[in-house]
TrEMBL record:
It comes from Solanum tuberosum. The gene is LOC102602853. This is Glycosyltransferase. CDD domains: GT1_Gtf-like. GO terms for molecular function: UDP-glucosyltransferase activity. It holds the Pfam family UDPGT. It comes from the Eukaryota. The keyword DNA-binding does not apply. Transmembrane segments: none annotated. Belongs to the UDP-glycosyltransferase family. InterPro entries: UDP-glycosyltransf_plant (IPR050481), UDP_glucos_trans (IPR002213), UDP_glycos_trans_CS (IPR035595).
Amino acid sequence: MGHVAQMLELAKLFITRNHQVSITVLIMKLPDYIDAVSGPFVDSVIDSSSSERLRFFELPPVDPTPEWSSKTRGHFVNRLVQTQKSQIREFLISQRGGVKLVGFVVDMLCTPLMDVADEFGIPSYVFFTSPAAFLGLMLHFQFLEDECNEDVKNCDGSTTLLSFPSYAYPVPPNILPMVLVDRDTWLGRFIDFARGYRKAKGIIINTFAELEIYALDAYNNNNISRSEQGPLPSIYPIGPILNQSKSQSESEEAEITNWLDEQPPNSVVLLCFGSQGSLPTDQVKQIAIALDNIGCRFLWSLRSPPQSNNAQFPGEYTSYSEILPEGFLNRTEKKGKVVGWVPQLKVLSHEAIGGFVSHCGWNSVLESLWYGVPIATWPLHSEQQVNAFQLVKEIGVAVEITLDYCERNKDQPIVTAKAIENGISKLMETNSAVKHEAKIMKEKSRASVTEGGSSYLAFSKLINELLKNAAV
Ligand code: UDP
């Protein structure tokens, strides 16, 4: 969701900001048995947003083989992307003789598709929905791998802090994302994505200059890695782009927002772990114990781990009492609410929310800061551990519950109720430093996208570049 929803918002932004541009969004869907949320979401966006200048083209469905589901969600998605090359080729052939195609924008995990755009002489742009610091880390690891012949896996297992060009502070090796250190499952794919980034004409990134000063300076000053492949592509920090579309029915949303309406301002902590987040039962119990002990108000998005398939996304529990400690729901009835999927942006906008226990997916971070809500960090997968580190150590808008939790770590220790209590108590303190910093970042994020702001200007530059392609 953090990729598809923001890509659709990017498309809308293009047509709002320039009357000459029109967009066709190519849609490839995950089957419902893998992800029950994103397919219906995309259908509703198509229904509500299609126009003369914003068209959608659904690529023909393909039949996944059992191998696709044999490893991880990322593996499944990658297989799906690879199979779309010929369909996209067909689509581009069908467009010949029509409007001039000035750019082919690919999601950061879809760079294999850039080859097809190349065949047609269309410049490719990557839409990067993670922080600039992580973009720098990916490019750095790819540089080490391809040009220094260094096995980046050596970083793992080391105890010395590591310096990377895009992070202001040395990084503890135990928080390096598995996608960059696990050679068997992820590394090859991520190195390949990074190779694609270097070949792009530009990188459109969902961040803003005031949030990631250090990483963007490192990128623009070409300090990321002095590759023999020449300078890095232009970067366009145009965020925050927020997911404004509905992903639930009115009545599902109302159940949550009506409850929030009854809570005092800044009193509720939101716990939500993203579109792919679920936790094992014993970990869920520790969170429940912590919430019981602290006594603070909470809204907890609790979703069930995939049941039958390595590539599946989490789903909804049929009954929360099966998994929560006995009596928890009764004891906390007056101060807390346990739900499944939440309308996250709407929830964060509510004045009752005072803090966010988050997996630190980048979209969730941007959404939280847009409303000035401080974060307590609990990363799960992807690049979230380094995001959490950056938020706590460098940006100062988050307190730590954990920085190194990794759902794919077989030996992952349980985060204790005590650690969770400490983190949430710090998060909800009135007048804390993180609350203050989050309020400052709220103002900066809004200023960045208003006329004359850094992201506004970066977007103008991007459109000018695209229109120059029309002249070629
Ligand atoms: N989201 C939501 N409700 C949920 C979980 C997630 O609306 O219950 C949205 C959230 O607002 C964000 C996206 O899904 O826009 C998640 O993106 P993020 O990058 O934070 O994490 P990911 O899901 O990619 O791990």
